[in-house]
Automatic annotation (TrEMBL):
Residues 316-335 have a biased composition (Basic and acidic residues). Residues 7-61 form the HTH cro/C1-type domain. It holds the Pfam family MrcB_N. Residues 314-335 are annotated as: Disordered. This is DUF3578 domain-containing protein.
Length: 450
């Protein structure tokens, strides 16, 4: 099919002279005449102008013979991402009935379109990889073309990436900020993978500041298979295109660049971590195990109130517990997981009293009606790597009034040491049963007491 011949055919059907069209386009008549005779090519921008002048859709020119001749359509549209998308949508389900090997539609998705997107969006190939997939050995339910930041991931099976996802019925297309579902399935198992990846999606959606409000929608790929459903679960944000009304390349590339700005923000959030380290961080955050001194009491208060932990019976396990993996923040600094529920149970075991002196004044928690005390790791959590077993256990967590707690952190050595000695003497046996052995002089060093 020759584009020029189709332009001429439509022009004559509409009874518009070549002079009228040329005048409207502000072209010399000779230029349009050469295009119609096939003596001169036409780029996508000029083709769109011709379509607007003739008051037809660009696809009416490209697809006007009604055939499914993929090769010819491909060659005529080699400058347009928009036309490629339309061509794939029109032919994919038909070609999916044919052999996968050397299939022209598969070639478009895997080779031609990724290269075109790379060029049209001026993507730096040193930092980004653009790749596509139509399946492996047979056509996939959901074909895709992904933009992957190499520092985060080079595969669509794990990590965060941008991806164009066709709906299974080939009527729609999403530009999605998404995640590799296979990683979650391999790490957690098929049962829990969907729940975990959705939690990460929500975490990123909540924390990102550059996601436009109209991109904060879920997606429906009309998928039946597990991979398609995995893409839906891994979706963070994105934009939808009706393939019957897909915008021109300018709009498509503007949207892609906007989403790449969001992708860059996520790259900053991931920071100096591998994607595996980042996921461990998010999972610990979602499980309430990344807490600091500023937020621990608020979380403990919620646990006591919501879980009725104050009314349950507990005892010290008096046995070692395995350590959990440390977590890295975006600067690459190691943080150690803490479980607010463990701290809440430690307060319960101490009877919500200060372990230095149960008569120390405190106040009553408004939500639970229990006395307010604060949890304190006797051996600081920062010493995590010095011990074989976990330090985040009830045996290592003391219940202190605010005054004694702050004294241990901020007091002078002569006031801190007696408090530390009292707690050490009371806890030494419990610590040993939890597999934690430390001498008092060593403990003093952790507190910087000379």
């Amino acid at each position: 099919m020759e584009i020029g011949r189709e332009i001429k055919k439509i022009r004559l059907e509409k009874k518009i002279s070549i002079q009228e069209v040329s005048m409207h386009l502000n072209w010399p008549v000779s230029k349009l005449s050469k295009i119609e005779r096939g003596e001169q090519g036409i780029n996508i921008d000029d083709l769109m102008e011709v379509a607007r002048t003739l008051e037809v859709d660009i696809s009416d020119i490209v697809y006007s013979d009604g055939s499914n001749n993929v090769k010819k359509t491909s060659e005529s549209a080699n400058d347009s991402v928009s036309i490629y998308f339309k061509n794939i949508a029109k032919n994919y389900l038909i070609e999916a009935k044919n052999d996968f090997s050397n299939n022209p539609i598969a070639k478009m998705i895997v080779r031609e379109l990724p290269k075109l997107i790379l060029n049209r969006a001026n993507i730096n190939s040193s930092n980004y990889l653009v790749s596509g997939s139509a399946g492996k050995g047979q056509f996939a339910e959901i074909p895709w073309i992904a933009v992957l930041k190499k520092s985060i991931t080079e595969t669509a099976t794990k990590g965060v990436y941008l991806v164009y996802l066709f709906t299974a019925d080939m009527k729609g297309l999403y530009l999605s900020l998404n995640q590799g579902f296979t990683y979650f399935k391999n790490e957690i198992g098929s049962k829990g993978a969907k729940t975990e990846i959705e939690k990460v999606s929500k975490y990123l959606l909540d924390i990102c500041n550059t996601i436009p409000s109209n991109y904060r929608n879920s997606i429906d790929l009309k998928a039946v298979g597990p991979l398609g459903k995995g893409y839906m679960a891994g979706h963070i944000a994105g934009v939808y295109y009706d393939l019957n009304k897909i915008p021109d390349d300018n709009k498509l590339m503007d949207d892609l660049r906007n989403m790449m700005s969001v992708y860059e923000e996520i790259s900053g959030i991931i920071g100096n971590r591998s994607i595996e380290e980042f996921y461990r961080y998010v999972r610990a955050f979602n499980q309430g195990k990344l807490i600091d001194e500023n937020s621990v009491n608020e979380k403990i208060n919620d646990i006591i109130k919501d879980n009725n932990i104050a009314d349950e019976d507990y005892d010290y396990d008096k046995k070692p517990k395995d350590k959990k993996n440390s977590i890295k923040d975006k600067n690459g600094t190691e943080r150690y997981p803490r479980d607010a529920a463990v701290s809440a149970r430690a307060l319960k075991l101490a009877g919500y009293a200060c372990e230095i002196d149960s008569m120390h004044l405190t106040f009553t928690r408004k939500s639970s009606k229990k006395k307010y005390t604060e949890p304190h790791h006797l051996i600081p959590i920062s010493a995590y790597n010095d011990f074989q077993y976990s330090l985040d256990v009830e045996e290592n967590i003391c219940s202190l009034c605010s005054n004694c707690h702050n004294c241990l952190h901020y007091g002078i050595d002569s006031e801190r040491e007696p408090i530390l000695r009292r707690l050490y003497d009371d806890r030494k046996e419990l610590l040993e049963k939890a597999g934690i052995q430390v001498e008092f002089e060593e403990l003093k060093n952790y507190y910087g007491i000379s």
